[in-house]
Write a structure and sequence with these properties.
Layout lengths: L12 H8 L8 E3 L8 E5 L2 E10 L6 H14 L4 E12 L5 H18 L2 E10 L6 E11 L14 E5 L4 H10 L1 H5 L4 H8 L2 H5 L3 H8 L6 E3 L5 H13 L2 E5 L7 H10 L13 E4 L4 H9 L5 E8 L5 E5 L2 E4 L13
Parallel strand pairs: 4-5, 9-12
Antiparallel strand pairs: 1-2, 2-3, 3-6, 4-6, 7-10, 7-11, 8-10, 9-11, 12-13
Helix pairs in contact: 2-3, 2-8, 4-6, 4-10
């Protein structure tokens, strides 16, 4: 019997595929559990129901608000509109107050209102053995059948576009949780700006994804989160059974994030970066999508392309091309 203890972070892709290989199918399950796909898709007559579940684990600040937006992002990446939200909220025994739960629900309601989502159910309890609250969200959305976007629909030669810069979420978390350590190492104005990254530029990609989807030129979209941009690109390639080549010099990065990563000796490519959206499309249509997103004040950059699977997932830095690292354990785990 193998008793090897698995490391912190995402379960390794090959191992996860092993767990998912022998699941029974269902003719109504259009997209089932698969590495690289953002959500499940179920045939509901004239539309598809899109379902997603994701927890908040790196922080307890605004976890209610976080959970709504993180789950909504993955629904939007399938071309769907987020509609209904459920929660499983576990609070630590011996240190939970009524005011703590009240704040979480207030944040959930605020995020739902921002996105036009309805909180429709879930479960809440006080649980033994927890050090901090754990909130797992479940988002449901719907999409017209001919508007569904899947990671598996990407094609060799597709351009890889990236919205905003990196790393958004990780920068905000570190700026707030490691404020004292950072006060003496980076500019105070820079730090204060980084602390507001959750809402500006923000971790939601719903607006960007829905706008891009409406162009009709999208092959796939993916929301890189835990494991950062690098892991997100690996997942994008896996979903389409292709390889990828990205150019480091083309990847836009926030100065605030770079300074914070430098302080803690972290790789920005592996730092959790909700708020960034990856898009694949043909070279012929990339400029149309970039132009469309610019109209809603979302800067978009071409950072690479999808290539033959046999070429692997690579990154070009200067004149050197090497394997793009994959971060099963997010870089933020080194300091939080």
């Amino acid at each position: 019997m193998n008793k090897e203890i698995l490391p912190l972070g995402k379960i390794e892709h090959d191992l996860l595929r092993e767990f998912l290989d022998d699941l029974e199918g269902d003719p109504r399950l259009i997209v089932g559990p698969k590495v690289g796909e953002d959500a499940a898709v179920i045939d509901f007559g004239d539309k598809y129901l899109v379902a997603k579940s994701d927890p908040i684990t790196f922080t307890e600040e605004k976890i209610g608000w976080y959970a709504v937006h993180i789950n909504a992002n993955d629904i939007a990446c399938m071309g769907a509109e987020p509609k209904w939200f459920l929660i499983t909220l576990l609070m630590p025994d011996g240190k939970t107050y009524k005011s703590s739960i009240k704040k979480i629900f207030k944040d959930i309601k605020r995020a739902c209102k921002e996105l036009g989502v309805i909180l429709c159910g879930g479960h809440t309890e006080i649980t033994k053995g927890l050090e901090r609250p754990i909130l797992c969200g479940q988002m449901l959305g719907e999409v017209k059948k001919n508007n569904l976007i899947q990671g598996s629909k990407s094609k060799k030669g597709d351009s890889i576009l990236m919205t905003q810069k990196i790393p958004i979420e990780g920068t905000a978390i570190l700026a707030n949780h490691k404020n004292k350590e950072l006060l003496n190492t980076i500019d105070n104005k820079l730090l204060k700006k980084a602390q507001r990254f959750l809402e500006k530029p923000g971790i939601s990609v719903v607006k960007a994804a829905i706008t891009a989807a409406k162009t009709g030129h999208i092959h796939s979209m993916h929301d890189p989160t835990e494991g950062g941009l690098a892991t997100g690109i690996h997942e994008l390639a896996l979903a389409s059974n292709l390889g990828a080549l990205v150019n480091y010099e083309l990847i836009p990065m926030y100065k605030e994030g770079m300074e914070i990563c430098k302080t803690f000796n972290l790789d920005p490519l592996g730092l959790i970066t909700s708020g960034t959206l990856l898009i694949t499309t043909s070279e012929d249509n990339e400029k149309k999508i970039i132009k469309k997103l610019k109209k809603i004040e979302i800067e978009t950059t071409k950072i690479g392309k999808l290539v033959d699977k046999n070429l692997g997932v690579k990154i070009k830095i200067g004149k050197k091309t090497s394997d793009l690292p994959i971060f099963q354990m997010d870089e933020i785990s080194k300091v939080i």
